[in-house]
Amino acid sequence: MDRTRLYRDGVLVRENFPIDDVSECVAEPGAVVWFDLCAPTAADLAKISEELGLHELAVEDALHDRQRPKLDTYDSHLFITVYAARLVEGRIELTELSVFVTENALVTVRDGAGFDIEGVLRRWDANAAMARYGVAYLLHGLLDHIVDGYFEVLQPLDDRIEELEDELFDGVDGDLRVRHRQTFELRKTLVQFRRLAMPMREVVGTLLRRGPETVDPVLIPYYQDVYDHILRAAEWTDSLRELVGNIREAHQNQQGFKLNEIMKKVTSWAAIIAVPTLITGFYGQNVPYPGSGEPVGFWVSTALIVTGTALLYRAFRRRDWL
């Protein structure tokens, strides 16, 4: 459902009115309008574009998904593309939001209902007195809610990586193929998440650099706080991706160590088996030699086999090869 709000002099005076009334509300002195469109059609955006004077390129970007997070500046408004994220069964679900920012209107365009727009409204209402700063405050609440959602995605991923580390070093038995697949999927998820977290830093950084032109000086610390949160999310993402890489390397090293242990045991037993093979082969020659055809030859060969294998077994055990 499309949502609308009208603030007059920082006070919420009207809510959930028809979008057709937006042009009248925007014309009111001291009025700030917000309205949200969920999966709008080209005709819906064309109508809004005419009423607010939106640039055709910005409208085109809002209609086409998979845009890069960015901030574009036009004569009468700003156009921002951001992504909200949530973790569902170990996978990141993204909701693309296109945001039009004019002097007295904030327009959010969502490509689906996956974004918690009610959470944004609660954030605005929690500090309603700040609404007197107009569109800049509404934009801050929206961006802050999106960035806070990034931490809700990263924390479960961090917990899962810690579980993989514990399984790795605690010697928990399991299918190595499953572990390799899990680490691969985690790394893929983190790479995907980094692609949207890093550009968000540029978006908020650009808003801060524009200064009073876009953001009231009173709100600068609030935007700076959002910027710091984005930096934390980006750094956290990089550290988790590095940890996943380390886990994969540790898995491979463990496999190499296990292979070396197996090879040492196989080599040790092959050397032990070679002793009786050598001695029996010697005593099995078809030529006369001392003890040939006599009981003493049997006992000498048996003694040599037992002594040789015992000495080799003891030597390999000492070196922890068996």
Automatic annotation (TrEMBL):
It is found in: Cell membrane. It comes from the Bacteria. The chain crosses the membrane at residues 266-284, 296-316. Its main location: membrane. GO terms for cellular component: plasma membrane. Signal peptide: none annotated. Keywords: Cell membrane, Membrane, Transmembrane, Transmembrane helix, Transport. The keyword Heme does not apply. It is a multi-pass membrane protein. GO terms for molecular function: cobalt ion binding; cobalt ion transmembrane transporter activity; magnesium ion binding; magnesium ion transmembrane transporter activity. Belongs to the CorA metal ion transporter (MIT) (TC 1.A.35) family. This is Magnesium transporter CorA. It comes from Planomonospora sphaerica. The lineage of its organism: Bacteria, Bacillati, Actinomycetota, Actinomycetes, Streptosporangiales.
